[in-house]
């Protein structure tokens, strides 16, 4: 009996972050697209980001920056610059450049609500991981990768943390190209969600 009540308590404790998060402000993500972008990649980016962020308990509104009104106000907003070409123009790795797939900015150690994502580096990373029929939906898979990378940056911004999680979480320090495009869901764990809850 005792072990049963412990199990029930543990389950309730696991659910707490999601319940507490219900009253969190909604989050608007405004995307600035610097170069050429595939409509299919942008659509999948929004789908994937919504799917991952759903666990945070926030209502998410992802749209292009030009779709925001000049005097519009937001409960909470993050600006995202998509740099380079957000389209799979090459189905084999096309550059040697190494570097972060995305990054945030800080002032005096405080992370600002502004992220930059390198479409070129992400496209290059996944080009080498596409297999067989995946090549036919390369732009869609690029969008999935962009959504996962962006969710990772939102974790840093909302959690106000530079720390990372371990394997299996989208808040892991480095995500492999396979993890970025895999059909297997990539999500936050309870620890990540607690960090993102004020
Ligand atoms: Zn990180």
Describe this protein's structure:
By secondary structure, the protein is an alpha/beta fold. It has a single domain, classed as Collagenase (Catalytic Domain) (3-Layer(aba) Sandwich), CATH 3.40.390. The protein contains 6 helices and 5 strands, in the order H-E-H-E-E-E-E-H-H-H-H. A hairpin with a 2-residue loop joins strand 4 and strand 5. The protein is globular, with a radius of gyration of 18 Å. The site of zinc ion has 3 residues, from helix 4.
The biggest sheet, with number of strands, parallel, antiparallel or mixed sense and barrel status, is:
5 strands, mixed
Q: Outline, from the CA principal axes?
A: globular
Structural class: alpha/beta
Give me the number of helical elements: 6
The CATH architecture would be 3-Layer(aba) Sandwich
Q: What is the count of β-strands?
A: 5
Stretches where pLDDT is under 50 for at least 5 consecutive residues are 1-6, 8-12
Radius of gyration based on Cα positions: 18 Å
Mean pLDDT: 89
Report how far the terminal alpha carbons are from each other.
35 Å
State which percent range the strand residues make up: 15-25%
What is the topology, as strand order, of the major beta sheet? 2-1-3-5-4
Ligands, ions, cofactors: zinc ion
CATH class: Alpha Beta
Overall number of domains? 1
| Secondary-structure element order, N to C | HEHEEEEHHHH
Helix content, binned percent? 25-40%
Q: Which fold name is given in CATH as the topology?
A: Collagenase (Catalytic Domain)
